[in-house]
Design goal:
The complex is a heterodimer of chains A (about 120) and B (about 110). With about 120 residues, chain A is mostly beta strands. Helices cover about 0% and strands about 50% of the residues of chain A. In chain A, strand 5 and strand 6 form a beta hairpin. Chain B contains no helices and 11 strands. In chain B, the strands form 2 sheets. In chain B, strands 2, 4, 5, 6, 9, 10 and 11 form a 7-stranded mixed beta sheet that branches. The model of chain B has no long low-confidence stretch (mean pLDDT about 95). Classes of the chains: A mainly beta (about 120), B mainly beta (about 110). Chains A and B meet through strand 5 of A and strand 4, strand 5, strand 9 and strand 10 of B.
């Protein structure tokens, strides 16, 4: 079964850091562009970052550029998001999603709450 | 950055009716690299349409996408009870990728 499972969310104070992980299974992970997408409580979807299969091309939303770092470990079928200098407005459910075009497989998400 | 504006914000319809949702881009979406997603409450988004008009695997044919350039449309020909949800458009033509703000289709 094709599956993505996120972990690493939690409660963190403003200015703090978190590292999210996404474990992939059921498909050839290294062949796919992977993404992070977030959804703040009661709000819409926001694309956060993408990384190609070889990690050769990475892109970020302006709202997180310079604070977040996406990476992957193809040997471990894992995707990561290092989040530094967290702000209140980063509070959201963070989901990993597969695909360079339409995002066809999504994880259930991990909750990140930034609050003092 | 390509800004996607969806309209209307809320669409109130009855089961069996036709739904027409609009997504307008602030600049041309090259190669029509635009997708549509459905999100039911408490669920993850579900890919419906990619490349503006191609249905994703397992999507019923009552869902169709059309448009090109800056104007795109998602049509649900006859609403089923499970279709009442929020719909998002998404462009993957350029970085940063962007989503529209969503259209809620609610039961009238």
């Amino acid at each position: 079964e094709v599956q993505l499972v996120e972990s690493g969310g939690g409660l963190v104070k403003p200015g703090g850091s978190l590292r999210l992980s996404c474990a992939a299974s059921g498909f050839t992970f290294s062949s796919y562009i992977m993404n992070w997408v977030r959804q703040a409580p009661g709000k819409g979807l926001e694309w956060v970052s993408s990384i190609t299969g070889s990690s050769g091309y990475i892109s970020y939303a302006e709202s997180v550029k310079g604070r977040f770092t996406i990476s992957r470990d193809n040997a471990k079928n894992s995707l990561f998001l290092q989040m530094n200098s967290l702000r209140d407005e980063d509070t959201a459910v963070y989901s990993c999603a597969r695909g360079g075009g339409g995002l066809d497989i999504w994880g259930q998400g991990t909750v990140v709450t930034v609050s003092s | 950055e390509i800004v996607l504006t969806q309209s209307p914000g809320t669409l109130s319809l009855s089961p069996g009716e036709r739904a027409t949702l609009s997504c307008r881009a602030s600049q041309s979406v090259s190669n029509n690299y635009l997708a549509w997603y459905q999100q039911r409450p408490g669920q993850t988004p579900r890919l419906l349409i990619y490349a503006a008009s191609s249905r994703a695997t397992g999507i019923p044919d009552r869902f169709s996408g059309s448009g090109s350039g800056t104007d795109f449309t998602l049509t649900i020909s006859r609403l089923e009870p499970e279709d009442f949800a929020v719909y998002y458009c998404y462009q993957y033509a350029t970085s940063p990728r962007t989503f529209g703000q969503g259209t809620k289709v609610e039961i009238k």
